[in-house]
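Q: I'm teaching a short session on how sequence maps to structure, and I want students to see two examples side by side rather than one. Could you give me a first protein with its sequence written out and its structure tokens following it? Keep the formatting plain so it prints cleanly on a handout.
A: Of course. Example one:
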Amino acid sequence: MTSTQRVEGINGIIKKYINIQNNLVEFFQGIQAFLQDQLSKAEYRDWVESLPQTNILATSASERIFPHIVKELKEFLTVEMYFIQKAQLDICLEYNSTLVLTEEYEAFEEVSTINFIFKSIMVALLR
């Protein structure tokens, strides 16, 4: 990658967070969120690379982490279904999940219900 390409890439990132409505603090927070996201992705790649190599020839994370599952998928699924399921295994490693305690379910349901009612009203008003 040439230095011009790098500069253009950085300019594109900066332009994404600059607009008339944003102040300097919001711009800074946007850049910070972007950098945190990049750091998380780098840490994930480092984690995947640090896993014990049970299958040296593996080309994807799912093949390295779940070799036995991938083997079973190959054995029992059609080629098309195998590739779909293998892609889903790769994608599942990119999820960032948080444990929700059972006591907190009601709060999520209330927010979900309020959002649904709000969206329903907005749709009705726009018609």
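Q: Perfect. Now a second example for contrast.
A: Example two:
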Amino acid sequence: MTPGHGIPKLMVVGAHAGDGEVMAGPLVAQHAADGGTATLLHLTLGERGHPSLPGAEYGPQKREEAQAAAAALGADVRILDYRDGELAASLEAKHAVAQIIAAEQPDVVITHGPGSFHRDHAACHEIVSEAVFYAGLADLWPGRPRHIVQAVYFAENWEDKRDFAADLYIDTSRGHATWLQALRCYELFRGGLSTFPYVRYYEALAVVRGAESGTDYAKAFSVPPEARRTVVPGLLGEIPLQVTTGSSIIAHDRDTQGSRASGPPGDVPLT
């Protein structure tokens, strides 16, 4: 936890600079605004994504854009030097990310889900999933800290949609405007480099997930299958796993910040 605050430390790991921002940027923005610590970790720059510039020229531009976007969101940023399009789920890469996790000590790690058609995204998922395990081993790197991550969430990404299940909704209404401004740090998201409408897509997705969860804007996350369990001592207290219905979403009052009051799917671990 962040010293003196009791706020979870957040780390978002993306295959390319820009992935983490579209997947969890509004959450990062409002988490930082609430006094939390957030780190964006990019495994590659995504330097081969420009239609005309070679990677040697576009890479430095992406590095500057990633640093500017992180600053706009209020996050720290770390960038590894793996090559765009060649990211491999090697033991070396898993150990490299594990050492960063052990050093940064995030409570929550967000990354790509398992169902991606993009090879770098799929590799990132495997790297991070196993790095979380390696980071918790006591004797892997003698003299270095170990760290147990409390939760791993898989973010929603248009290239990672296969078998995605929205297990967790987090209201990101307060971070939405800051997130949109941060995206503009990237030429890719300002338009002109790709025919895919990134900002329109992810903003529309935030509206849809907000409508589904009773907020203005939200991000949805999947969790590992082993995390999909709820244990209760009985049914004498609050009823667990309450059914989400149309009336349960729309029939409650607005709060003072303009976002609908907390409704399904229940408590969330990050603000």
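Q: What should students look for in example two?
A: Point them to this: The longest strand covers residues 10-16. Also worth mentioning: The CA atoms of residues 137 and 146 lie 6 Å apart.
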